[in-house]
């Protein structure tokens, strides 16, 4: 079935597939079913996420298999009054971006998705819902950039920011009140891999102030593994730079919502400030999303192998795939997988530094979500923007090493890590194998 006019072609053309669909999206764009709202609106069984990730219907006049890149800042109008056409200016809307947004809305189980130039750009758009005097309640183990933006808003925007241990909903209950305009959550946190109970916190926040917006940063798990909107969140946002893209070749931010009024406010800011994702990056992200399923599955399997390996050699490992994770049950009550980011401690900052520098396959890099494996020391790299005193207050161990596991052969990854551990002097070599040298506080050798 090839029916369907793409914006820009004749609008009178009868859209066969579109008859059963509401073809007007929230912006009033009369779009063809592309990427098709294939489910749940087709009336049949809902497709699995793995199917939705790759299934798009592009129906431009040439039936292009890949959504075209509309590399155009402006679109010609048909009348002097400018009315009538779907698109006029790319800051306000672009067909390639719209395709991506509709595809993401489907995948994220959302009414509407919006894409901007980075994950931090997404948070910037979201926090512009706030007014001076508003209170924000958030975690104490946040992504460094999130921390920096919130700090800026508290010193320059009159926003009151409370950092609390969000792993205990009761702590949060003591802080939220009728001035709480936003609750900002990350789960699992990074790099401490603490789990946050989204449903309980959302209900506590909404009870304290029904107008409070609960926003969840879902970057660590991606829509493949967790849907915060289904767990009580009002807004979910992600850095598209990570798992959604998967190749560290673009930067993007994604916001998804179910409330159309909220969607309108967020879109207003994107159009007003001009941070919408460019057509080329929208196209690249669309391409990346198609392989999210296979990438994440392989990355998770590898991550579980590495986590088990490190734990069995006596290191204190933080990974929600391990039964030893103190919030294992809570994590699995919300998520469909453990993700591919884990951290471990060696008990010695210098040993950790040597491990990171001795690894070869594991590239020293901030960020995660890429197909290749990465190693980093968060206190020296991604979280260096949090001052040492605050890091200590938040019990962020200076020796913590973060591993972001890729799709390589797991034996190669383990060999390389073993060699780095030995070379760095992190392990005691015995005839039976090797064991972590310094077992710190709560970590007991498990084998
Ligand atoms: C990377 C990241 C961000 C910021 O995304 P950018 O695309 O780098 O701006 C926000 N939150 C988390 C958890 C991240 O890992």
Automatic annotation (TrEMBL):
Keywords: Amino-acid biosynthesis, Lyase, Methionine biosynthesis, Pyridoxal phosphate. One of its GO terms (molecular function) is cysteine-S-conjugate beta-lyase activity. Residues 1-44 are annotated as: Disordered. The keyword Cell membrane does not apply. CDD domains: CGS_like. GO terms for cellular component: cytoplasm. It is an enzyme of class 4 (lyase). One of its GO terms (biological process) is transsulfuration. It catalyses: L,L-cystathionine + H2O = L-homocysteine + pyruvate + NH4(+); an S-substituted L-cysteine + H2O = a thiol + pyruvate + NH4(+). The modification N6-(pyridoxal phosphate)lysine is found at residue 242. InterPro entries: Cys/Met-Metab_PyrdxlP-dep_enz, Cys_b_lyase_euk, Cys_met_metab_PP, PyrdxlP-dep_Trfase, PyrdxlP-dep_Trfase_major, PyrdxlP-dep_Trfase_small. Pathway: Amino-acid biosynthesis; L-methionine biosynthesis via de novo pathway; L-homocysteine from L-cystathionine: step 1/1. Its EC number is 4.4.1.13. Belongs to the trans-sulfuration enzymes family. This is Cystathionine beta-lyase. It comes from Didymosphaeria variabile.
